[in-house]
């Protein structure tokens, strides 16, 4: 019996080869696939020249995986082969001259860029279906609602402080420096007490923030606010209060709205940039302003003996709290280093992942 070659149509994607063999009602035996070739042997079916035995073999341009999916239907034989490496082939066969029985399958045909778009769309659908399969946290809405409200309250509080100080600066000029504490301290107390939640939030798994950087930030500010300014009347009308409060609030009026938008899955480019860039000048300036406040408070603590630790008479009268603050000054710069590194990494991570998303 004469053995004929069937008409074979082909198309490709980055990861697969599709072959459509024009053989109806075929009983097909697949030739043993190798890493670089595939075909059919002894296929009995109805082809272009009627009922007959058909076979073909193709030597591929690049290696393929040995497992082959083959399906014989009333109209045709479909063969799907996976490529060894997921990349676009410039042609199907090793030999540049295409065999006469081979033609493009225009029903499946895509050029490289269309196939890439199809791949991206598939990946997107897969991602969505995986996400929807992951069990939803039943308290997600509650958590997001709480975080949104927290950030909103902090945003309003710090905006009030910032606007109040800016307006007073315009109206009173330098004179406004000296009564910053009396006009804004209550609101600052409120905001900074609330900020303790920022240490609790990562512990409760509500946000991905590192516990340690948040603790350094909140504890560092609260020592300055409640101990250095809050406990010493003499410090409260010093100009340094203005600079400390102004630097704190300048970052927070951008950080909290950024978090608010994150809670509702939104991201404004400019706001994100401000949140991840403003700290570069503001954080060191803030720590310098805080250090000036601590240094100015040292003689006052020495004089007033506030928080001094009584010592046995052989060792002297008492140990001034200013020694603790001198140690704190060293910790401040250590804290600055830790948080500066943390914020730098956060910035890198944010912009690296965004770049990856764009490409
Ligand atoms: C006895 C005491 C000892 C202590 C000794 C310590 C010494 C202290 C020295 C240090 C002194 C510091 C004093 C401070 C001075 C100043 O503040 S000066 C002014 C300038 N300051 C700043 O710029 C700092 C601002 N602060 C911060 O950025 C943070 O507080 C941080 C903890 C330092 C870092 O923020 P972090 O949250 O880690 O980074 P993010 O990238 O923003 O967040 C991570 C992810 O978590 C999400 N998230 C975080 N919080 C919230 C929230 N409230 N609501 C919703 N979502 C939140 C955020 O969206 C991120 O998610 P992804 O984007 O999905 O990653």
TrEMBL record:
CDD domains, per the entry: p23_hB-ind1_like (cd06465)
Family: Belongs to the very long-chain fatty acids dehydratase HACD family.
Listed SUPFAM superfamilies: HSP20-like chaperones
Protein name: Very-long-chain (3R)-3-hydroxyacyl-CoA dehydratase
Biological process according to GO: fatty acid elongation; sphingolipid biosynthetic process; very long-chain fatty acid biosynthetic process
Enzyme type, top EC level: lyase
Keywords for this protein: Coiled coil, Endoplasmic reticulum, Fatty acid biosynthesis, Fatty acid metabolism, Lipid biosynthesis, Lipid metabolism, Lyase, Membrane, Transmembrane, Transmembrane helix
Biological pathway: Lipid metabolism; fatty acid biosynthesis
Species this chain originates from: Poecilia mexicana
Compartments (UniProt record): Endoplasmic reticulum membrane
Enzyme Commission identifier(s): 4.2.1.134
InterPro entries reported in the protein's UniProt record: CS_dom (IPR007052), HSP20-like_chaperone (IPR008978), Tyr_Pase-like_PTPLA (IPR007482)
Reactions performed catalytically: a very-long-chain (3R)-3-hydroxyacyl-CoA = a very-long-chain (2E)-enoyl-CoA + H2O; (3R)-hydroxyhexadecanoyl-CoA = (2E)-hexadecenoyl-CoA + H2O
GO CC terms of this entry: endoplasmic reticulum membrane
Spans traversing the lipid bilayer: 145-167, 187-211, 278-301, 321-344
Function in brief: Catalyzes the third of the four reactions of the long-chain fatty acids elongation cycle. This endoplasmic reticulum-bound enzymatic process, allows the addition of two carbons to the chain of long- and very long-chain fatty acids/VLCFAs per cycle. This enzyme catalyzes the dehydration of the 3-hydroxyacyl-CoA intermediate into trans-2,3-enoyl-CoA, within each cycle of fatty acid elongation. Thereby, it participates to the production of VLCFAs of different chain lengths that are involved in multiple biological processes as precursors of membrane lipids and lipid mediators.
Membrane topology of this protein: Multi-pass membrane protein
All copies of domain CS, residue ranges: 3-93
GO molecular function, one term: very-long-chain (3R)-3-hydroxyacyl-CoA dehydratase activity
């Amino acid at each position: 019996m004469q053995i004929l070659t069937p008409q074979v149509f082909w198309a490709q994607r980055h990861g697969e080869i599709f072959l459509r063999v024009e053989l109806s009602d075929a009983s097909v035996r697949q030739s043993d696939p190798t890493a670089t070739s595939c075909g059919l042997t002894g296929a009995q079916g109805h082809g272009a020249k009627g009922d007959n035995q058909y076979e073909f073999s193709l030597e591929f341009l690049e290696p393929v995986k040995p497992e082959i999916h083959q399906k014989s239907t009333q109209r045709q034989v479909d063969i799907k082969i996976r490529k060894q490496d997921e990349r676009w082939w410039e042609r199907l066969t090793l030999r540049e001259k295409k065999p006469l029985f081979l033609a493009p399958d225009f029903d499946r045909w895509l050029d490289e860029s269309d196939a890439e778009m199809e791949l991206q769309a598939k990946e997107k659908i897969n991602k969505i279906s995986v996400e929807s399969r992951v069990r939803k946290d039943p308290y997600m809405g509650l958590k997001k609602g709480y975080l949104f409200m927290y950030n909103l309250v902090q945003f309003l509080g710090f905006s009030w402080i910032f606007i109040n100080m800016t307006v007073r600066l315009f109206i009173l000029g330098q004179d406004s420096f000296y009564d910053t504490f009396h006009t804004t301290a209550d609101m600052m107390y409120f905001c900074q007490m609330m900020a303790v939640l920022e240490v609790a939030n990562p512990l409760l798994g509500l946000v991905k923030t590192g516990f340690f950087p948040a603790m350094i930030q909140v504890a560092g500010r609260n020592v300055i606010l409640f101990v250095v300014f809050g406990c010493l009347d003499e410090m409260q009308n010093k100009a340094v209060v203005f600079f400390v409060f102004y630097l704190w609030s300048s970052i927070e009026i951008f950080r909290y709205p950024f978090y608010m938008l994150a809670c509702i899955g939104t991201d404004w480019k400019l706001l994100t940039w401000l949140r991840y860039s403003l700290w570069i000048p503001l954080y060191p300036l803030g720590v310098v302003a805080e250090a000036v406040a601590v240094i100015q408070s040292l003689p006052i603590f020495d004089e007033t003996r506030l928080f001094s630790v009584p010592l046995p008479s052989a060792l002297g009268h008492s140990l001034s709290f200013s020694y603790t603050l001198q140690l704190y000054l060293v910790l401040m710069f250590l804290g600055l280093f830790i948080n500066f590194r943390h914020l730098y990494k956060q910035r890198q991570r944010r912009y690296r992942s965004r770049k990856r998303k764009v490409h």
